[in-house]
Amino acid sequence: MNVRDRLPSGHGDRALIAGVVCILVGALFALTPLRVQLPSAFYVFVEVGILFVIYGMLVLGLDLQYGHTGLVNFGHVVFFAVGAYATAMLSAQDSFAGIALAYPWPLGLVAGVIAAAILGAAVSLTSIRLRGDFLAIVTLATAEIFHSLFVNFEDIFGGNVGILGVPRPIAAVVSDGDTRLAATLLVLGGITLLTLAAVTRLTDAPYGRVLRAIRADELVTRSVGKSTITYKTQSFVYGAALAGLAGGLFALYNGAVAPGFFTIQVTVTVWIGMLLGGAANHRAVLAGLAIIMGLRLISRFALDVTPVSSDVFASMRLIVVGLILVAVIRYRPAGIWGDPQELGVDQ
Amino acid sequence: MGLLQELIFGLVTGSYIAIAAIGFTLIYGIVNMINFAYGEYLTLGAFIGFLAANALPGPLPVAVIAAMIGGGITSIILARGFFTPINQTGPVPMLLTSIGLGIALRNAIRLVGGRSARYIETETSTFRFDAIPEIPVGSVDLLGGFFITSEHIIVIASAVIVFAAVHLLLTRTDVGIAMRAMGDDESLARVRGIDTQLIRDSVWVLAGVLAGLAGVLMAIQTNVSADTGYSHILQILSAAILGGAGSPYGAIIGAYVIGLVLAVSTAFLPSSMTGLSSAMAFVILIAVLLVKPSGIAGSEVREA
To answer: B57 to chain A, minimum CA–CA distance in Å?
Structure first.
């Protein structure tokens, strides 16, 4: 029996192995004197790549909620923000404004995940029974409320400046800039792959079948004895906790959090990525997100060669993004790689 | 500033939110969608008003009427292009489409109109009432002198005229009665021989006219930039849901509740936290959806 046969065949197991390999290689760069040199044209790719793997965790959680269970969460950014703020406030050493408790960062990260999960539980306990479009409004309003709390309570959240001085664990062990970027991308990408493995495992299990049954027809699912409210709540909380993890990792990568990082634009980006790729298919939603975030790269390069201001370009990019959302829903409601039959949408 | 002054500001805010919320709630009740791009209709109305005020030599009412006509035409064109083709897909795809359309419209307006805030210049006369005694409670003055400008009076009077016109339309005309019938039960309305698509189109036009009016009133009373409509959409939505989604009369009450709560919370919050007053509208929205999702006068929105 050779090595090939021993390799697992499922997507989930492959993602698990790839994730572990990525983290190990990343750790190799971080902990040994091994150095990488990136061509300077590459920086922008690596930076967008890091943001992509962080948003990847968001889109996987959102796909669990919307793609599999049918919960329309249009305030996903709030869980990302709460995770990031909780991590930052607990672990920041010395912030210009706001609370900085200087606990070790792993504690902060755990607290970020828990805080996001608690908020998710609170939202779902109160609102999960609402009809789809109204749940969207409640989650959106929750995100707006938290956004204005972050801006207005300067003593606690640091206002518009946010919280500075958050420890950066990878930057702390790697002094060289190029290596630091590569190690960050590898470690965070590895964590995203592990997340992919975990959600694949969850949704391939009978548990995932129940979630999809709820999406297809809640009444029928209830009639075969499944407590749909419990399943919906769990799915919502898992998605929120994943967003909290993404938020905590973002804070530890970025070294600072501020309200400007957590606008509705984040929600819109992950939603469009998910719908474009095809909801209910984990790898498709990541691919869809990659396409949408790839647009940022294009606009950044195009900016250098065209004589328009960056403001104008940002507006043009957002017009395209909005029209992509409209076009996907109208012409390809199941997304590029989605299965219309399974999603139950009319073509 | 005294509380009385804040209440006048609240009435003015409530008035233009009410005009917009009637249009929003009619779309909800009859087309059965939450139109998240509706805030952009307000901005469009205001910008058409700017154009008209600059291009046409006529008096202010000309700009207002141009904004209303422009709003109605834009609304029906957008509805025919984006919403009517997917009418059968259900509320969630339509909500998502309106979110995408809203992003595109907002940025298109910013691209064409620029980032700066503008306003329509009008001759204003201010009426002051300074003789009213102050009743200070803590940092808040419960009465106090106040002023009211002719712009405030224009906004409030326009709202009252709109309420009367909408009431007459819904109760005295065939189109209005058909609208109410469709809001009640679309299939039954169709059985009675109502052309449902025609009624839907007329609702889109009416909602666009109201949005244009609300937008141009905002431009007269304060100022309007590309983001103004978007920053008001959640207040309009809160007013509509508070009143009971689909009910125009509920929306009017809801809008004034929202306007007054915003004003009073501005008066009572410490000055460093006045930004929180806009969050109050969302707190009301969530509270209503949790306690009585059907609003003051409306139908059930819970599934299970």
So the answer is: 32
